Amino acid sequence: MPGNNKVEENTKLNQEEYASRKIVLASYPRTVFVQMDSICNQDCLFCSRDAAYSHFDIDEYRERYGRKLQPVFERAESIILTGSGELLALPGIKESLDYFNGFAHAEKMFATNGSTLTPKMADYINDSGNRYTIHVSLHASNGDYHRMMTKSGNFDLIIENLKHLRSLRANGGNVRLNMVFLLTAKNIDNLVEFVHFAKEYGADSVIAYYNYIYRQDQRDLSCFFIKEKTNDILLKAGETASRVGMRITLPPKFGQDNYREKTLCGEAWSQIMINCSGDIITCDVAGDSRESILNKEFMDVWNGEYFTGIRKKLADGDTSCAKYCFRANPAAVNDFRSHIITRGKTEDEIKKVIEG
Amino acid sequence: MKVALLQCPVWGTREPPLAVVQLSGCLKAQGIETRSFDVNNRLYKRREESYKNLWAWEQSMFWYSKDNVKRFFSDISGTVEGYADEILAFGPALAGFSVAASSYHFSVEMAKLLKRKDKNMKVCFGGQLFLDKRNIEKAFGESCVDYVIAHESDIALGELARALEKGNIANCAGIHRSDGTRVSFTGERKSLKNLDKIPYMDFSDLRIEDYDDSRHIMMMASRGCVWNCAFCSSRAFWPGYRYMSGERIHQEISYHRSLQKPDVSHIDFADLVFNGNIDRVREFAKLMVKYPPFPASHKMQWNANAIISPGLDEETLRLMAESGCQRLFFGIESGSQKVLNGMKKFYSPELALDVIRNASKYGIKVTCNFMFGFPGETEQDFDLTLDFVKQAAPYVERVYPSRTYCSLEESSYLHSHPEEYGIRTPLSHHLYWESNDGTNTYPVRLKRCQRFELLCREIGLKVDCGVKTTVELDEYFNLGHYHEFKKEYDSALSYYDSYRKLDPENEVVNRKIEEILKNMAGEAQR
Ligand code: B12
Ligand code: SF4
């Protein structure tokens, strides 16, 4: 097992390279997103899943990328297990987690709808010797809201699982727990209640963010059309959180005149997201990358045309990609296009979604 | 590429067809848009009065006759046409039929209908029926089948779909194909190594609640067997013994519970042997106890086939019972060590008694299967079987005496090594074979079975055999058949006649009598 030296050295170098706007990097990314698509036992209103998509296969992954990614994982601060579907429902998930747990120095993070975070899984994760942060994506504090959002009837099961996690954490467990609330016009009334709920189940924090629109029929879910109400509820949720002592992350409000400045997005220096076909997935607002580690060495991709192109653009002060990104540019929240996933869509299709 | 999966009649209606839900999960996990259609259950649910009993187990023979099925198909043409349109509306480029002997003829009719409506759609047949290569030839002869996969297809079917999309299947191993004139094979495919990675069954199209028992599912958590019993044909399809870990089984059960409401509280394992690896059984049982699938108030119960092995010790059986094991089915087959050795069954009758006693002690209900007249079995050996039953009776819920007594199944060791077992060659018939010395014949085996059942009746042990007819009817029918096969028409007639006295309306028997009389008249004339 490599010592933490490699991680520290890499982090330091990466920070320096970012600060000096280096285009070709000697350092590796500090965060690696691994896309692990899985089946799902819910059918959420806001979901992005296609009718058919391949599931993650750890043997294939190791065979194809194990060698190439070894130095990357050895130096990563965190490994984020993401993807479509319910990660923990993947057949043989423990075998997959065991592989990533082999890089025990790296923090692990994944999201779950909570139904598969069974006591067995929670115990396993807690005993893995790894530091995990789990995002439980509930979007609701009670069965009715939950059923509406997820079109499933497993809220009671989730509660049972959360109770176990709570007692595990209360007894010295090593798992961090964030509760996620995807804000839509359908459930926003439940946000304040959700803060209390998260408190009751001992979460470390609540994370709320706006839904992205993948398909036209999801347009009406957007809080963009209920701006005042949204602002009001975000305010109340923030107040409630500070009253009950719960950390909360809220998205930018609409129509404000005190948005913070656009930041120089560091993601092209610090992180990479790779799917099971080896393709590099970009952030939600950027275009397709057409880069893949399948037939290239990692560093040839990390310092390839796509990454160096973005780094150069950003380093040169061109922040056009933040135009529709309210993470780097909170003011973008006021432009409806920022709420739409444009990747893979033609201008016509985007226009259709915008016009409704 | 879209794939439709079909189950045609006749098949079980208690729960969704296992192969289809398994393959559906596999295809979807490979990113292939798939929809399952259970023609069998649909027709069963909407069956008309005149076909009310067709799905009863005893009526299986109906479906083995091409003429019967063709007639039935045309009688319900409106319904099947409608269903075909529904399937085609999904837009499949490939239709995969899960086929067994009982569903073969209907699958052919359905495939023809689909192809008539959509000439471009390809048809692939698969299932254990095609272990016998002659069935592959036969299927291609129907001129509606493009591909046959005669092996496990969890990966193969998806790869076929992908290869078809690319327009070249030459590199996709395991596919038999026909271009209308020539049949070819793309080469052997390796079996799956790690069953833990098989995707879960997918019940999203075929919902459990649409079947006869909405509280129940079936699952096959291992493939193959650790033994190779001389008479066995079931293991031939599945090479070796491959199994899911206890963890994987527990995970899948918990998953279905999270999805299918808590109502699903019973599982039948379709494994040939559930305890081929005892560690995984213990692991599974421990997990079910420590982490009962939610809600714990609806305890999950399970049944499985098992072999007698020292691993099934008292502690393991206690744990299994605690984890929800309700019933175990053992192929005991004989109470004679000599016969067991001949069968290549690796246990002693004493161990079998121990296991059964311990299982019963912890409340697991035990079913034992028995065979009669295995080559080499003498009257003394058979008496040992009767002794065994007497001793085991207090701990056994019921027995299954084989109503074929001891049949020579194709693809069994016995079938391919008759000389080694003193069976007269050339083989005359899988049921009516005889020993070289003439002491072991079909009527001898039948009589042993009758004595066995008589004893069970005397000691109050429940006898179940999957056949609903009485012992007498069974005897008359089987011996009628046997003598007919041997062209001993007088004896055949007398047995069929005895049958007719008990069941005068039976059409099959009445027709048989007519046929024999005609044959006899013909022979007399000659
Ligand atoms: C469970 C079972 C049943 C259940 C089915 C329940 C259900 N909901 O599906 C019930 C009890 C209903 C049943 C009934 C019958 N069964 Co049954 N059954 C089995 C058993 C134990 C397991 C089958 C199974 O589903 N396994 C799990 C799946 C995943 O495996 P699979 O079906 O083999 O599918 C794999 C491959 O065959 C292939 N495949 C299957 N379908 C397709 C389709 C395509 C397109 C492709 C490409 C591949 C493919 O890929 C699959 C995945 O690898 C097998 C014996 C065994 N242990 O294997 C016998 C078996 C399948 N049954 C058999 C038979 C004959 C019957 C009956 C006709 C009569 C009988 N003697 O039992 C009756 C049907 C009559 C009736 N009225 O219902 C035979 C079939 C052999 C044959 N020549 O047809 C078998 C093999 C037993 C045997 N050795 O005799 N059965
Ligand atoms: S134990 Fe059962 S499945 Fe295994 S070989 Fe013997 S008869 Fe066949």
Model description:
- The complex is a heterodimer of chains A (356) and B (526).
- Chain A has helices at 4-19, 58-75, 93-101, 119-126, 143-150, 155-170, 191-200, 227-244, 267-270, 298-302, 305-315, 347-355; strands spanning 31-35, 78-82, 107-112, 132-137, 175-183, 205-210, 247-249, 271-274, 280-281.
- Chain A has a nine-stranded mixed β-sheet with strand order 7-6-5-4-3-2-1-8-9.
- The model of chain A has no long low-confidence stretch (mean pLDDT 92).
- Helix content of chain A is 37%, strand content 13%.
- Chain A has 356 residues and is of the alpha/beta class.
- In chain A, α4 (119-126) links the parallel β3 and β4 (132-137).
- The model of chain B has no long low-confidence stretch (mean pLDDT 94).
- Chain B is an alpha/beta fold and 526 residues long.
- In chain B, strands 2-1-3-4-5-6-7 form a seven-stranded mixed β-sheet, sandwiched between helices.
- The chains are: A alpha/beta (356), B alpha/beta (526).
- The structure holds cobalamin and iron/sulfur cluster.
- Iron/sulfur cluster binds next to loops of chain B.
Strand-helix topology:
The complex is a heterodimer of chains A (356) and B (526).
Chain A: H1 4-19, E1 31-35, H2 58-75, E2 78-82, H3 93-101, E3 107-112, H4 119-126, E4 132-137, H5 143-150, H6 155-170, E5 175-183, H7 191-200, E6 205-210, H8 227-244, E7 247-249, H9 267-270, E8 271-274, E9 280-281, H10 298-302, H11 305-315, H12 347-355
Parallel strand pairs in A: 1-2, 1-8, 2-3, 3-4, 4-5, 5-6, 6-7
Antiparallel strand pairs in A: 8-9
Helix pairs in contact in A: 4-6, 7-8
Chain B: E1 2-7, H1 18-29, E2 33-38, H2 39-45, H3 66-75, H4 77-89, E3 94-98, H5 104-117, E4 122-126, H6 133-141, E5 147-149, H7 156-166, E6 176-178, E7 183-185, E8 216-219, E9 222-224, E10 241-243, H8 246-259, E11 266-269, H9 278-290, E12 301-306, H10 314-322, E13 325-333, H11 337-343, H12 349-361, E14 365-370, H13 379-392, E15 398-401, H14 413-416, H15 442-459, E16 462-463, H16 471-485, H17 489-502, H18 507-525
Parallel strand pairs in B: 1-2, 1-3, 3-4, 4-5, 8-11, 11-12, 12-13, 13-14, 14-15, 15-16
Antiparallel strand pairs in B: 5-6, 6-7, 9-10
